Amino acid sequence: MSISIPQLPKGTRDFYPEAERIQNYIFDTWRSVAESFAYEEYEGPMFEHLELYTGKSGEEIVSQLYNFKDKGDREIALRPEMTPTLARLVIQKARELKKPFKWFSMPRLFRYEKAQKGRLREFFQLNMDIIGTESIYAEADLMAAIATMLRKFGLKDGEFAIGVSSRKLLATYLEEIGAPNPALVYPVLDRRLKIGPEAFAKALADAGLSEDQVKKLDDFMSCKSIEEVKTKVHSENATAALAEIEDLFATLTAAGYGECVNLDLSIVRGLAYYTGIVFEVFDKGKSMRAIAGGGRYDSLTEKLGGERIPGVGFGMGDVVLADLLAEHNLLPSPKQSVDFYIASFTNDMKKVFETAQVFRSASSSKEGGKPFSVAHPLAAMKMGKQLDQANYQGAKIVVYVDGSKAAAGEFEYKDMRTGEMFVGNTEAIVARL
Ligand code: HAM
Asked: 3-state SS of 274-338?
């Protein structure tokens, strides 16, 4: 009988060091930009009680849950998104938390969906959320952070766009045209561009809309400017929702992000808890799935049994982002890179270990930054082999512990980037880096 070798589960990824290096580049950039906007990092468990999701997130995400009964007969689900966990954290400390506050997290998430380009069963998602304010400037802050982040990754304005819509505006329009059952209509509207005009019309007819209502909705969702929308909506609520979007755009324009946002009423969002502004980030030409999506959810904490605390935020997945960066050649080299490689002509391993330690401690003189990375052979070997290893590991400088000046406390060393040889003490070598 042949034994089959273990297989990677569908929709998951292995991160060999080269892939993990790129992953860390994404995480580091996410974290540094979130911190530069003064968001604080938080975490939660990877699994929650199933009921945290059922009914509150929307049908699609619930059908994609990885859930099971644990040994205590409790219904458990691996987290498919972070927002319900965040809402739980907020409810638990509703009184103590000084509002508004800005938090971020980079959870590993699980969704049982069809694995395809841009969609996996296990992925990472940056979440940035602002809790405790209904102000539209919270949306402005989040969108400024998204644009800053994508620019920091090297994308240019015009290579991505934050499309903005409003559930409030849509709801008032549905009311104005007398559409029944908004709850049944939203999921259809969310799929409008995916399913094509005929299926769209049929699904809306099934939800109880007349032909005229379908046509009006389709026209409405195709509006490209606020001016155009103004000709279609007239109620006080709609006017207020539009004024809010105008203020948001004007604020972002003043801050230098005007080119990064546009009105896109085709965006509805599948999640059930959104109540106001909703937005999605796409590559130019929308050739890929969404890079990020989010919106305002002012009643989620209430739906979960807590007091009403407004919130707004977004999730940005690592999968589409990495695909897009790869397409633009913006991912860093996946190769390893170390600062020093400590070599020895005589295979004096004690001296090698001792010197490696000297260079590692030399990092303490560096301000802030990471400690130096120091590599060396782990067994006796010829100098040629050691240099091969140094090269393979991307060493910047090779230090020879037993060169002719060693007795005088100086090392011969080679700058691998230029091929030049030098002699000097630890300080001089560190300065050369
Ligand atoms: P979402 O639209 O479900 O929103 O996901 C946001 C982003 O996560 C997507 O645009 C995509 O980049 C990524 N994503 C989603 N599913 C997958 C998947 N199966 N594989 C790879 N990437 C995926 C939410 O999750 C909301 N909870 C976001 C939010 C935070 N709203 C307010 N705060």
From this structure: CCCEEEEEEEHHHCCCCCEEEEECCCHHHHCCCCCCCEEEEEEEHHHHHHHHHHCCCCCCCCCCC
Buried b (16+ CB within 10 A) or exposed e, 96-109: eeeebbbbbbbbeb
Total of domains in the chain: 2
Over residues 357-411, the pLDDT tens digits come to 999 998 766 666 678 999 999 999 999 999 999 999 999 999 999 988 888 889 9
Q: Say if residue 282 is in the same domain as residue 351.
A: no
- The helix (run of H) or strand (run of E) holding residue 262 is strand 261-263
Q: Is the CB of 139 under 6 A from ligand 1?
A: no
Give the confidence band of 123 by pLDDT, cuts at 50, 70, 90: very high
- Please state, in angstroms and rounded to a whole number, the distance separating the CA atoms of residues 193 and 199: 10
Summarize pLDDT for 314-331 with one digit per residue, the tens.
999 999 999 999 999 999
**Ligand 1 pocket, 276 CB below 6 A?**
no
Q: What is the pLDDT of residue 333?
A: 87
Q: Is 281 in the pocket of ligand 1 (CB under 6 A)?
A: no
User: What letter represents residue 128's amino acid?
Assistant: M
Pocket mutation for ligand 1, best pick of 123, 268, 301 (most atoms within 8 Å of C-beta): 123
Q: Residue 124 forms beta bridges with which residues? A: 108
CATH code, domain carrying 280 = 3.30.930.10
Residues 179 and 182: their CA atoms lie apart, in Å, by 7
Residue 276 has pLDDT above 80, yes or no: yes
Sort strands 160-166 and 261-263 into parallel, antiparallel or unpaired.
Answer: parallel
From the CA of 294, give the closest atom in ligand 1: 31
Residues 6 or more apart in contact with residue 234 via CB below 8 angstroms: 176
The pLDDT value recorded for residue 94 is 96
Alpha carbon nearest to ligand 1 atom 24, residue: 315
DSSP string, 52-78: GTTTTS-HHHHHT--EEE-TTS-EEEE
Instruction: State whether 279 and 415 are in the same domain.
Output: no
- Residue 351 domain boundaries: 338-432
pLDDT above 70: percentage of residues in the chain: 98
Distance CA 108, CA 123 (A): 6
